[in-house]
């Protein structure tokens, strides 16, 4: 009995061990694009994959060029399978880096895509998500002036360039899902567009797109995206352009936090926003004399705080005017004052536009760069 | 090596018992319990698990107290001493029926992630038969072999818990778990029964106590197993809530697999749910082995046979056949949701051992007088 069992197990291991298909039979999908198929009204899926490098490593290492294939179908999965038959190898969907959603399909809704990616383990849940101004396919098929693959160019922008600017918002699939599945079912996604600079075509990541109940309902420009980032505490390495005594000046932000508390004052729901930030004078047109006037920095702190306050209040006002709580105010109330939330959750759409905002900023400019006072050059 | 054909032969110490118990208690709930708990308790699910752990500790106290009243016998044997021969056999049959149902459901649930995530093309009967062959082999080798397997798997499990708590940290959103102090304790208590029902499975101690060598530390070992399992389960549940939000945990069957599917510790370390699949395989294998062993051993005692091995050869195909019967995942989940938590947990894991302990205490006091 024991010998038969051992023999059976060895044969089982020999027959079942190993990958079902060698890796060189796959094409790694880096960008996954979805548009509305204009002819059928269904989906058009575009997959961008790298061409494999030549030489010794042929077939197993990524080259520097890409190719795209498209498929159409009544469902996203059918469109993907249609794209399969046009690929030389099996498209591998487990390491998609970027998902691009065409504006038309975004407005119709991306619930099916979200469900497919969550449900089917062959998809990854961590690609960066962007709504395209226009069609995703046009952007993916454009000849770009990059020395790296477009997917990695986008990721470099999101991960590295975001250290220098807060004028865009980017989100990964799993965190976007958290935004639309948790209350108030409205959240932001990245926004990308193809721009032409002379003969060159470039990708521009700027602003954000607004989704409510899985549908694209609006876009944010760069200024609003910056306001949102200030409100949510994502402002490390931001710039605050201020006007001091009529002269333009730039304050670089090193870091800080934003905390939000809902409080009830009388019959009014008030959201108290407290932003604390530290920074430095990045650029000044008038050479303020910090050495002989210690109060100067205090005035700059206040001016920078006012600028931040305006950015945040403009962003909140825009959201309230649209009546869409993509700021996550309902979620904040649910988790910080659940008793009150239970009482007003059913009327949230009426409550949100009437929320009052109380913003406090505490900016500390810690240094002035390498220049302290006026060199009297002019 | 001891083959433990004889129930009176101790084949593991308290440490081995504790590890075996942790393995049995944590194997399914660490993967399956967060979602149903969150469905009731929302962001307080991690607290519900701790409340459930407190309930399981009380069950554990009763179980070990009862077991140590008859340290050389199993519940199948001494239930006949406590409530008489016929009623005792009924009690024994109830426990064996519960062990059988857990074996069947654990075997079927064992195949779910393998079918869903790994090898969708392998037919269900093939998966079940291959798993049962491995389990049967371990059970035939004896309880000591299962205990050694458990010792090894627990070492990996410690690493696995660290992975679960460290790798998804990039996705943390502390707001998801607030407020820490619940505004509705009723919700916390209502959500505690699911994890309590899983953690109270230390009722299998009633079958294992005769095989433990140094019984004086058994109570401590058993309660430590329940406590550590509860803390680990609470920590993983908290991690899932804080990284995915309770809404997403609620909508996911295998939320712990999802936790690792989304974890990105660095740009190159991602899609690590395969680690969870491996851990699932090891943990559930030991659980299935323990249940098949106590089931065969219990039947041996009930039928008055000398050797449990022939019973294993009969039980293994029966369990495999029964595991094929649920047609889909909805039918598989009926048992834990509709039978295990609301009926078996209360009736068999709490009320029955308490009644047996009360009667045996009264009888013993009567005998002394």
Which structural traits does this protein have?
heterodimer, A: 378 residues, alpha/beta, 10-stranded mixed sheet, B: 369 residues, mainly alpha, Amino acid/polyamine transporter I, disordered N terminus
Write the layout of secondary structure elements.
The complex is a heterodimer of chains A (378) and B (369).
Chain A: H1 2-16, E1 26-28, E2 31-36, E3 43-52, E4 62-73, H2 76-84, E5 90-92, E6 98-102, H3 103-108, H4 111-119, E7 128-132, H5 136-141, H6 150-159, E8 171-172, H7 173-181, E9 186-197, E10 200-205, E11 208-212, E12 215-220, H8 222-231, E13 239-244, E14 247-265, E15 268-284, H9 295-322, H10 329-336, H11 338-344, H12 348-351, E16 356-367
Helix pairs in contact in A: 8-9, 10-11
Chain B: H1 14-26, H2 29-32, H3 34-41, H4 45-69, H5 75-83, H6 85-118, H7 124-141, H8 143-166, H9 185-190, H10 192-199, H11 205-208, H12 218-244, H13 246-250, H14 255-262, H15 273-303, H16 309-324, H17 329-368
Helix pairs in contact in B: 1-8, 1-12, 1-15, 3-4, 3-10, 4-10, 4-12, 4-17, 5-6, 6-7, 6-15, 6-16, 6-17, 7-8, 7-15, 7-16, 8-15, 10-17, 14-15, 15-16
Report how far apart the termini of chain B are: 44 Å
Largest interface: A-B, 27 and 34 residues
Number of domains of chain B: 1
CATH superfamily of chain B: Amino acid/polyamine transporter I
The rough form of chain B would be described as globular
Mean pLDDT of chain B: 90
Arithmetic mean of pLDDT of chain A: 87
Largest sheet of chain B: none
Element-level helix/strand string of chain A: HEEEEHEEHHEHHEHEEEEHEEEHHHHE
What is the overall shape of chain A?
Answer: globular
Output the structural class of chain B: mainly alpha
Instruction: Supply Rg of chain B.
Output: 20 Å
Q: What is the C-level CATH assignment of chain B?
A: Mainly Alpha
> Sheet bearing the most strands of chain A, described?
10 strands, mixed
**Uncertain stretches of chain A:** none
Contiguous runs where pLDDT drops below 50 for at least 5 residues of chain B:
1-7
CATH architectural type of chain B: Up-down Bundle
